[in-house]
Amino acid sequence: MSHFSISKPAYSKIVLHSLKFPSSSVHGVLLGTNTDPSTVRVTDAVPIGHASISTSAMLDIALQQISIYAQKCEIMIVGYYASYENINQNKLCISVSENSNFKNLDIPTLNAYTNPGSGWTRVSDSFGSEPPAEKTLAKQSKHTASCTFENSTVIATTKKLVQENAQKLLHDFDDHLGNVSLDWLQNSKLNNLIQES
Amino acid sequence: MKYSTTECLERLESIRLSGERRSQEVVEIGEILERSNTIPKTDEGWMILEQIAIGGMDTGKFELANACIQKLKQMFSQSKRVRMLECMYLEANGWYNEALDEYNKSLELDPTDMNIPKRKIAILIAQNDISSAIKALLQHVDNFPNDLESWIKLSQLYLDEHLYPQAAYCIEELILMNPVNHFYHLKYAEIQYTLGNIEMALKYYLSVVELSRDNVQGFYGVKLCSDRLMQNISSSKKTLDSARGLKNKNTLSELSQLATERLLFAYSNPSATSEKLIYKDDKDIEEKPTPMTKLVLESWLKL
């Protein structure tokens, strides 16, 4: 049983990112701390792309720059999120690292969770961390994650931001490539709005 | 938002011209116009009704969309274009079988229509039946090989399925049809990089920066690829073919340096390099990169 807590800026950025590009798949990474191996604190999200999430050149650059940024801020890359174009696919997928160091990432340390509406459950196939034969119900139940929001205002704030069309303030790395003055790493203007809300 | 009618019409026109999918905004403006009943009964007015209808379907404002479609239907009861909107309305509501029946009926009347097969493919995509969509789209580009839009969609579908060589093939077709469009070269470079063909990717990133002025993504690609190729050369002991073209270490280091210079220039003069969209929300756009983005860039360039 693992646990991750999601902060207000992280959650609202994920939601606003998928809302800004309703007709594209979007993805980005999660920043935070992972002091205790069973608890991941997700404090912020950095939106990467919406143009094409399945080619890797600009993703490589974005990841390299995010790790430089994370080092400067003394936080870690703790996970990845993706929200897909087609609503029939998993609506939102969040992967968090359960081992203490995301830098030494190998496949089994990264676990994907998806929330089809009934709670967060682990996606067992896509990351191949387990041979299919071992997949019994009992085993799967061990891999449900508990996900909590940092405090009770996360959902309410996000709803408010959505109503205010705050996604206009959010920029990802793809936007940044089109106009380098757009702040994709911190999204400072949006941060201010989130703080005020 | 408070706009005068003229402002509303101007904003809608600029969105139509730029071809951007700003459905949210179209709907916001559309609602103002609908409420005040100020959409002119002119050729422009009919186009606006169509635009608002599509925007409404895109954002789930079905009542608004339906109102626009009904107005168009009163005016053009026999129009194929209005019929298409009605079918799209069925699709937007998820009534795929009903929409398919209508499309098939229209196809019987006019088997040469190019847009109906595309709507049928859109239904397959919406139903997440990607392999059937790919099959249908292959048939479609066979019938209409000059349909650029369909080649792009086909390559996207292949990419979603991680079928990179097939996606690359579609882009090759597009480059052959339109060899000076740098967007296709960019796409091709991205796919080749993903396939691990770094040298090929570098060649296409170079043609991107040649075909367009100070293309940030292009120079990022040049920097990424030339640095990686240099690393490969240093780590392998083979120096025999190092004199050949792009594998020459000096050439690579010069390219890397050039990209570094151009990227630094772009970050110091953002207005000279940012994408020129016809439609732009000036108030939302900062003028300069933030100190943090610049700091991160500089340390990424290893200065």
Rg of chain B over CA atoms, rounded to whole Å, is 24 Å
Number of strands of chain B: 0
Largest sheet of chain A: 8 strands, mixed
Largest interface: A-B, 35 and 46 residues
Beta strand count of chain A: 8
Secondary-structure content class of chain B: mainly alpha
Mean pLDDT of chain A: 77
What's the average pLDDT of chain B? 89
CATH fold-level name of chain A = Cytidine Deaminase, domain 2
Task: Write up what this structure looks like.
- Chain B: Component of the ER membrane protein complex (EMC).
- The complex is a heterodimer of chains A (197) and B (303).
- Chain A has helices at 8-20, 57-73, 137-142, 154-163, 173-178, 188-196, and strands spanning 2-6, 26-36, 39-49, 76-83, 93-97, 110-114, 121-123, 145-149.
- Chain A has an eight-stranded mixed β-sheet with strand order 7-6-5-4-2-3-1-8.
- Chain A starts with a strand and ends with a helix.
- Mean pLDDT of chain A is 77; it is low at 99-110 and 125-142.
- Chain A has one domain (2-188): 3-Layer(aba) Sandwich (Cytidine Deaminase, domain 2).
- Chain A is 31% helix and 27% strand.
- Chain B has 303 residues and is an all-alpha fold.
- Among the domains of chain B are: 1-76, no CATH class; 221-266 and 291-302, no CATH class.
- In chain B, helix 1 (5-18) runs antiparallel to helix 2 (23-36), helix 5 runs antiparallel to helix 6 (96-109) and helix 12 runs antiparallel to helix 13 (216-235).
- The longest helix of chain B is centred in the last third of the chain and has 20 residues, at 216-235.
- The two termini of chain B are 46 Å apart.
- The model of chain B has no long low-confidence stretch (mean pLDDT 89).
- The chains are: A alpha+beta (197), B mainly alpha (303).
- Chain A binds chain B through residues 22-23, 25, 52, 54-58, 60-61, 64-65, 68-69, 72, 86, 88-89, 165, 168-169, 176-186, 188-189, and chain B through 21, 23-24, 58-59, 125-128, 156, 159-160, 162, 187, 189-191, 193-194, 201, 216-217, 220-221, 224, 266-267, 270, 273-275, 281, 284-290, 292-293, 295-297, 299-300.
